[in-house]
Amino acid sequence: MRTRFTRAEREAQILDAAVAVFTERGYANTSMDAVAERVGVTKPVLYTHFGSKEGLLLACVTQARAQLLEATSQAAMEASGPEDMLRRGTLAFFRFLDDRRGSALVYAESSVTAEAIEDIRAQQTDFIASLLGAADPTADPQRLQGWARVIVGACERLAHWRKQDPSVTAEQATEYLMDLAWQGLGARAGDSGRAR
Amino acid sequence: MRTRFTRAEREAQILDAAVAVFTERGYANTSMDAVAERVGVTKPVLYTHFGSKEGLLLACVTQARAQLLEATSQAAMEASGPEDMLRRGTLAFFRFLDDRRGSALVYAESSVTAEAIEDIRAQQTDFIASLLGAADPTADPQRLQGWARVIVGACERLAHWRKQDPSVTAEQATEYLMDLAWQGLGARAGDSGRAR
DNA sequence: GCGGTAACTTACCACCGGTAACCTGTAGGG
DNA sequence: CCCTACAGGTTACCGGTGGTAAGTTACCGC
């Protein structure tokens, strides 16, 4: 059997192993030796490829980041208008997380990963802000940024909710976000209060 | 000078020192010896009081959690109606973070603290869901939970935005959230699109 | 003052992230 | 077909840190 591989091959192997081990044992509780053992090599190999434990984690997150933008922007492309775009993008986000159960947000433990995750949020925030800007060209950029951040934060929490309570469907989560983001609670509160 | 203190006194001293050191150096980069030195004792003292490094962090977060509920619920009490309640509560949240610059969300590094922070979110989510339930008694509980989570996530992201860009005021952040949560984007997108 | 207990220190261990030095399989030229 | 150069890989080690067992000392009640 092969015992030596090219850089690219080993890097892919290590990345896969790292995602698996970090996911099942958590970042802090995972030793580099454990990852190395899973790959079938020794520790220094990991260091020649990724520099440090945080570097390895960073590579995992960076990979996930590209895949996320791919998934959401593709969904938004297929939409018929602003509301549909927000809805489809949101739904695609939840579906993305469904496809990679657990292995996505475990990363939030390390401080260097926190920064990388922040980059992912920035990526999604800019993307959403540009969608909103197209829907309402009169809004000033800062306000668009604010709205986009609200949506990103909302999605993150809804996703976490679904993780701990899988009975909440991706469609329901999307609907709850649309309730607030598009329609607003004002109308509902008014409904139950006084006639309109 | 006094060299020995009662349990309660030492615990308070250690908690203060831990908050300070964790805040300025980050959780992962802080050694227990560093905290102990700041207090003026040796490491095992910390362990007799808090059991482990994570236990110490947990105590810090638990303390902050109680203070947060105190601040937001007090603000909501003074409101005149549902919308004002949401607005005042949100504003109080941002002001709370202003008062403890940086020292609040640094905690999100450890996995055990992630759970504790999750408890804080649960606390605020339940609180907000109950407010929303009062505003719209016809909504079903799961939907209320969904809305509350949207708001909690939105606040968290807006707070983070303000931390990295202090020119965004607490009032602006609150306004952006109210734009979506209360009024909704539909009206605005419609404004720029066709007449209503 | 004088025990006795709670507070505290000393001295240590095991584990883990990281590295220097050495070894070996294998592609490619003669 | 062999042999050499180097990429790929291993062994053996270090320093720092979380955590602890055993011993020491200040303080309170009598």
UniProtKB/TrEMBL annotation, chains A, B:
Q: Spell out the Pfam families in the cross-references.
A: TetR_C_46, TetR_N
> What residue ranges carry the coiled-coil annotation?
none
Q: Which residues bind DNA?
A: 31-50
| GO term, biological process aspect, one | negative regulation of DNA-templated transcription
Q: Which residues form the HTH tetR-type domain?
A: 8-68
Sorted UniProt keywords? DNA-binding, Transcription, Transcription regulation
Instruction: Please tell me whether the keyword Transcription regulation is annotated for this protein.
Output: yes
Repeat keyword on record: no
GO MF, one example: transcription cis-regulatory region binding
TM ranges are: none
| Protein name (record) | Transcriptional regulator, TetR family
The organism of origin for this protein: Pseudonocardia oroxyli
